[in-house]
Amino acid sequence: MKLLKLLFRDNRLPLSGIVLLSLCSAVLSIGVIVFINLNLITLKGELAATLLRFLGLLALLLGCAAAGQIALHRLGHGFVYRLRRSLVRRVLDTDIERLEQIGGARILASLSSDIRNITIAFVYLPELVYGLILSLAAFAYLAWLAPALFGVTAAWLGLTLIVGWFFVGKVNRHIRLLREAEDHLYQDYQAIIDGRKELALNRDRARRLFDEEFDRDARAYRDNVTRADIFNGLAGNWANCMVLGSIGLVFFCASGLGWAEASVAATFALTVLFLRAPMVATVAALPSLLAARISLDKLEALELAVESEEIAVLAHPGAWQCLQLAAVEYRYPGDGDETGFDVGPIDLELRRGELVFLVGGNGSGKSTLARLLSGLHRPSAGEIRLDGRVLQAGQWPSYRQLFASVFTDFHLFARLLGPQGAEVEESLVGQWLERLHLRHKVRFADGRLADTRFSQGQRKRLALLLALLEGRDILILDEWAADQDPLFRRLFYRELLPQLKAAGKTILAITHDDHYFDQADRLLKMDGGRLLELTGQARARATEDAVREIGGQVSSARLNELA
Asked: Which of 1, 163, 323, 492 lies 20 to 30 angstroms, CA to CA, from 432?
């Protein structure tokens, strides 16, 4: 079994000890049957001494079995804990491009459903291990006791296993299908949660999402989990009936055909009845074990980054003066018959302390350029140079330490961190909240924001606060001012950005606010994946009317003013 192999690979010595304890428990269990057969069926000698020996044997069996199961539970759940930590660490180490290819729904399904399935499997694993070892020990005892009867019983149970394997195959198939349905359900949940406002406004869309997508996936999950449980129930009932049938077969062969004495047949019957519970429990555990195997396959299929020892604390790249993108290209692969989208080749030189504005139409490649510049996307061609030194493959994580950002799809963390992950001074936080006009609304204590449920404009201000507190050299702002009121937009462009530039920050601001283009040291434009710098008359025309310059796109500032 894949789960046992994986567990044994990383915990060879502890698991060997657990197997030894389980073997001792199985031998003691058979010893109890032998003791009953030899001493209790026909009582002879001192009754008190016989009873004490029997109780002592039971106590030894209880202690050995409990120790084995407790050890296996601890080992199993410790393995799940390490697996969960490893998976999250691999997600954190995986390139953002790969994470976007996988999709958030699949990652969430693996972090929740797959880890849960593996955890449940470890709950059943002790019963499986104990049942297998006990069955082997019991069969060995029966083979020694009456080889002929054992041969008939083994053939009977062999038929039981063959038919049971058919049911198990059906269970495995439907568990795989329901796991696929679970991925689709997580996508539906994400759409319902992320699109809650649109669904509330458009009940037709909500109805069709519910009826045509969610209900379809929920039915698929229901149908497959029902069939899996049905086949598992059939397998359990089949095993139960065949085990009871083997008892009748044993007595028929012993009494009717004269193959063995009645006492031997009674011992056979007692042993088979004793095995009935662990065998049925093993069958009942199969769906969970199969689900765990499928979940392990799902985790492997994510193709995340190789596990690292720990999330390393990276050193700052150090002082720099010039950052260059030299013939950098990036390609978004096409989907089906659609062609991909190319960005580049891009040549860009960014100097320390510059305030650079980037404009361009929707889909022109502005955000892609920001991701290439910050190292979130790795170029398919070209190179990035820092003070003339070409960035090497192993230097990407350290290079990213230059940047702080507020992208349009930002996430607002409650934890406030300073440079190199240090704690921040509350007085500094208070000063920035005052400058961002949030002091009267935002509460913070112990380095955390008390609440992050604000308007989008206020959330962007808090995201900017977090970025500024990190103390990075380069700040990337993607349409940051789009959700700000006109008064604060003016403060942002006329006061805040010049102050950050004076403090030595390098700022790349993606913006359409043409009223404030005069604040920029340089004005760049993306058009169809190509970058050019607007200078002279071209810049003057852009400053006068950015709407016309970028191809008829109405700027966010104009829309807010018209509103």
From this structure: 323
Contact 380, 431 (CB under 8 A): no
Give the residue among 507, 458, 484 at the shortest CA–CA distance from 556: 484
Half-sphere exposure of 542 (CA within 13 A, CB side): 26
Question: What is the C-alpha to C-alpha distance for residues 437 and 472, in angstroms, rounded to an integer?
Answer: 22
Segment (H or E) for 475: strand 474-478
Q: Which residues contact 507 (CB under 8 A, 6 or more apart)?
A: 354, 355, 356, 474, 475, 476, 477, 497, 500, 501
Residue 512 — φ and ψ, nearest 5°?
A: -120, 10
Distances from the Cα of 520 to the Cαs of 10, 64, 216, 395, 489, in angstroms? 57, 76, 53, 30, 15
pTM of the predicted protein model:
0.69
Distances (CA, A) of 330 to 94, 345, 358: 18, 8, 18
Q: Is residue 505 a contact partner of residue 475, using CB atoms and an 8 Å limit?
A: yes
Mean pLDDT of 23-51: 75
Q: Whose structure tokens read 């509330």?
A: 200
Q: Give per-residue pLDDT as tens, 263-306.
A: 778 777 777 777 777 777 777 777 777 788 888 888 888 888 77
Counting Cα atoms < 13 Å in the Cβ hemisphere of 268 gives 33
- For the chain, helix, strand, coil in percent to 5 are 65, 10, 20
* Range list of β-strands (E), 244-395: 322-332, 341-351, 355-360, 381-386, 389-390
The percentage of the chain sitting over the pLDDT mark of 70, rounded to a whole number, equals 88
**Helices and strands (DSSP H and E) totals, the chain:** 20, 12
Phi, psi of 490 (to 5 degrees): -65, -45
**Distance from C-alpha of 443 to C-alpha of 349, rounded to nearest angstrom:** 40
Query: Please, what are the domains in the chain?
Result: 2-301 (1.20.1560.10), 322-333+340-562 (3.40.50.300)
